[in-house]
Amino acid sequence: MFPDGVSPEDQATYYDEIEQAGAKAVKAMRHLVGMLRKDTTDPLTSLREAVLKAVGEDRRVCLDLPENLDRVARTPQLATTVHRVILESLNNARHHASQATYISVALRIEQDAVRHVLVLEVVNDGVTGP
């Protein structure tokens, strides 16, 4: 409900903005789901390979990978997910922090009470933009 005094035109404007924001969110979600569903031509089985392929030749990217990275229980799905998350993170950094001089991609393996946990961190020194 709108407070008293809000004109029908203003109400329509608010509803239009909500509809546009919802449509934009759905479009972004469809894009993400499409990326996650997309088959890769070469299945990735190694986490190290997944990271290296995602980073490519970008000289701004500093990698920090543990020696025992491939000892983590790995599946092609895990490698593909890590690959795609890094790709999307680097794409976001390039788009939203284009002034960044470096991007750090770090993976580490932590132990909780029951299992190993893979932690991925992507950080840059750029200022976020529009």
UniProtKB/TrEMBL annotation:
Q: Where in the cell is it found?
A: Cell membrane
Membrane topology classification:
Multi-pass membrane protein
Q: Does the keyword Transferase apply?
A: yes
**GO annotations under biological process?**
phosphorelay signal transduction system
- Please give the Gene Ontology molecular function terms for this protein: kinase activity
Question: Could you tell me which InterPro entries the record lists for this protein?
Answer: HATPase_C_sf (IPR036890), Sensor_HK_TwoCompSys (IPR050482)
Q: Which domain of life is it from?
A: Bacteria
Q: Which cellular component terms (GO) are annotated to the entry? A: plasma membrane
Residue stretches spanning the membrane: none
Q: What is its main location?
A: membrane
Q: Where is the signal peptide?
A: none
Key words, A-Z: Cell membrane, Kinase, Membrane, Transferase, Transmembrane, Transmembrane helix, Two-component regulatory system
User: Per its record, how is this protein called by name?
Assistant: Histidine kinase
According to its UniProt entry, this protein's organism is Streptomyces griseorubiginosus
Organism lineage:
Bacteria, Bacillati, Actinomycetota, Actinomycetes, Kitasatosporales
